[in-house]
């Protein structure tokens, strides 16, 4: 397993970084500060004006009192099929460049595309998971443009009859961003093929092309323009990632480009029905970047409005510059691109039977939203719920632990604190650990019924995580059973007290804090096995006893 | 191949013609069309009278196809393309209002493939035919902007 902690157990990047960002916002330097400053210097260069004075972190909130942002997202998901969409070339990431090629994906004359059934399967799966209606008959079209990463001169896509349309997705906004539940519309999901990879060398007057990716299957998800802030957009993106991972249709990895989000954003004065000019933002390779890019763009556009220069907001594609924390013009769009779509003559229509759709519906796993609502109903707090449901393997592990009858809150706590920390340090994912869900349930039970103390439990946990084994075996082997016999505990207490007359005197003359010292000594003597509650109760009796 | 070429020519024609094309394609392709009344279908067929089809703007066609043509070539092509469009005009005069629209030609089942990878054996000859190769990559002129 190459999956690391970042991908598996921690809340996604967006939440993690977002939280960090939020914390910074509340102190002195803020990312929003930074973006506002960048903006200031950018506009200052084109026309002399004073940079905005208010660098407060509530700058964006202020803007959003006057303007409403309208955000839609196009998400491209690379499918984890074994072959490319229309040929049998292996679909593998990171192979030697230009080795996974054949006449079909290279667009050689006479080659005919044949669709992989898995692409249809995944399309139906995702369509259903996004609550879409499915087209029992859909078709492919050619989208034509010239670019070196596109050997055929056209991309096989779906134009006017996508496989799925008219759905929605439900998300929970994390508490640190105000919390709450949102529903965003899904316009459509369609099947298409990816283009090759174009590498621009900084030196040299040429570009390099790797066509291993040309023809790899994609599902494009188009949202309704329902998002209103960077946070909402990032949470929408995170939910897409969770859903494709839950479904197993893609690894959803943004760094590898398996999940790519393009954001369309416009702002309009509140109360205006007409949409503003739409700007597209690309190059967003993390949800945190998406959130910041959008907030930057809202601020930039609002300033132009405020200066009476709304006409300077033009239809264009902008890139997010992570280093400078701002968006920069990539290309202006002169007129709408004419892709000259027409039906792909080499492929038949895609026909789904109702039985096929029903069988896929029946085989869908529990999806993130259903899981979150179920965890919530079990009494877990929303932060626990979001953490556990964020990663499908963590959620499955958690479900197995509670399936063995473990206390729900204890199981959540162990997973979110000690186990999460261990995975982070060791750079492991939950599926790599030797501790089985069964044994975690045993451990929780052993602590609950006081066979072992919580402290011993922690020691056992780390051994089990690293080496495996059973809780019962370890308790026996190391003689770790908790001492709950009051007589035995009392004996140890008396011994410690008799060996520390000085401390006893100080305690009795008012330094009651020394109780901790005595408790520690007794615990040490018991090798950590004394029941803490019992220990403290008896210790207090003895310390406070009048001689 | 013949249809492919014709479709390419048609799809690369001036805006007015594209509109005509798109309306026919989408009307015949969208499932909702099946619910349309026969009267509307008739409207469509009379709508696509050849007289509506405008002569091609060959210069623009050449631009979208990324080829350069001399004025005499433009003149020569113009006549040929007009002829093709005229043929389509004739085809569109056929009354198909009683025919159930199909979004694609139907094929007897089994037009999908198993997701089983198979490496194409003669990859070397594909690579050998690429005119400009830089170690493992195809070498192309530096391009930064799409469209
Ligand atoms: Zn291929």
From TrEMBL, chain A:
Family that this chain belongs to: Belongs to the GatB/GatE family. GatB subfamily.
Species this protein is from: Raphanus sativus (Radish)
Gene this chain is encoded by: LOC108805382
The UniProt record lists the keyword Ligase: yes
Quaternary structure (record): Subunit of the heterotrimeric GatCAB amidotransferase (AdT) complex, composed of A, B and C subunits.
Locations listed in the record: Mitochondrion; Plastid, Chloroplast
A GO BP entry: glutaminyl-tRNAGln biosynthesis via transamidation
PANTHER family reported in the protein's UniProt record: GLUTAMYL-TRNA GLN AMIDOTRANSFERASE SUBUNIT B MITOCHONDRIAL AND PROKARYOTIC PET112-RELATED, GLUTAMYL-TRNA(GLN) AMIDOTRANSFERASE SUBUNIT B, MITOCHONDRIAL
Biological role stated in the UniProt entry: Allows the formation of correctly charged Gln-tRNA(Gln) through the transamidation of misacylated Glu-tRNA(Gln) in chloroplasts and mitochondria. The reaction takes place in the presence of glutamine and ATP through an activated gamma-phospho-Glu-tRNA(Gln).
Gene3D superfamilies, sorted: 1.10.10.410
E.C. designation(s): 6.3.5.-
InterPro entries: Asn/Gln-tRNA_amidoTrfase_suB/E (IPR017959), Asn/Gln-tRNA_Trfase_suB/E_cat (IPR006075), Asn/Gln_amidotransferase (IPR018027), Asn/Gln_tRNA_amidoTrase-B-like (IPR003789), GatB (IPR004413), GatB_Yqey_C_2 (IPR023168), Gln-tRNA_amidoTrfase_suB_CS (IPR017958), Gln_synth/guanido_kin_cat_dom (IPR014746)
Keyword Transcription: no
SUPFAM superfamilies for the chain: GatB/YqeY motif, Glutamine synthetase/guanido kinase
Highest taxon of the lineage: Eukaryota
Cellular component aspect of the GO annotation: chloroplast; glutamyl-tRNA(Gln) amidotransferase complex; mitochondrion
Known catalytic reactions: L-aspartyl-tRNA(Asn) + L-glutamine + ATP + H2O = L-asparaginyl-tRNA(Asn) + L-glutamate + ADP + phosphate + 2 H(+); L-glutamyl-tRNA(Gln) + L-glutamine + ATP + H2O = L-glutaminyl-tRNA(Gln) + L-glutamate + ADP + phosphate + H(+)
Keywords, ordered alphabetically: ATP-binding, Chloroplast, Ligase, Mitochondrion, Nucleotide-binding, Plastid, Protein biosynthesis
Enzyme class at the top of the EC tree: ligase
Name of this protein: Glutamyl-tRNA(Gln) amidotransferase subunit B, chloroplastic/mitochondrial
Start and end residues of each Asn/Gln amidotransferase domain: 396-543
A Pfam family recorded for this sequence: GatB_Yqey
Molecular-function annotations in GO: ATP binding; glutaminyl-tRNA synthase (glutamine-hydrolyzing) activity
Primary location class: mitochondrion
UniProtKB/TrEMBL annotation, chain B:
Cross-referenced Gene3D superfamilies: Glu-tRNAGln amidotransferase C subunit, N-terminal domain
Any one cellular-component term (Gene Ontology): chloroplast
Annotated family: Belongs to the GatC family.
UniProt keyword annotation of Protein transport present: no
Subunit structure comment from the entry: Subunit of the heterotrimeric GatCAB amidotransferase (AdT) complex, composed of A, B and C subunits.
Superkingdom as given in the UniProt entry: Eukaryota
Swiss-Prot/TrEMBL GO biological process terms: glutaminyl-tRNAGln biosynthesis via transamidation; mitochondrial translation; regulation of translational fidelity
Entries under HAMAP family matching the protein: GatC (MF_00122)
Keywords: ATP-binding, Chloroplast, Ligase, Mitochondrion, Nucleotide-binding, Plastid, Protein biosynthesis
Protein name as annotated: Glutamyl-tRNA(Gln) amidotransferase subunit C, chloroplastic/mitochondrial
Gene behind this protein: LOC108819490
One Gene Ontology MF term: ATP binding
Catalytic activity, reaction form: L-glutamyl-tRNA(Gln) + L-glutamine + ATP + H2O = L-glutaminyl-tRNA(Gln) + L-glutamate + ADP + phosphate + H(+)
Native source species: Raphanus sativus
Location(s), subcellular: Mitochondrion; Plastid, Chloroplast
EC top class named in words: ligase
Alphabetical list of Pfam families matching this protein: GatC
NCBIfam families (UniProt xref): gatC
Organism phylogeny: Eukaryota, Viridiplantae, Streptophyta, Embryophyta, Tracheophyta
Function of the protein: Allows the formation of correctly charged Gln-tRNA(Gln) through the transamidation of misacylated Glu-tRNA(Gln) in chloroplasts and mitochondria. The reaction takes place in the presence of glutamine and ATP through an activated gamma-phospho-Glu-tRNA(Gln).
Principal location class: mitochondrion
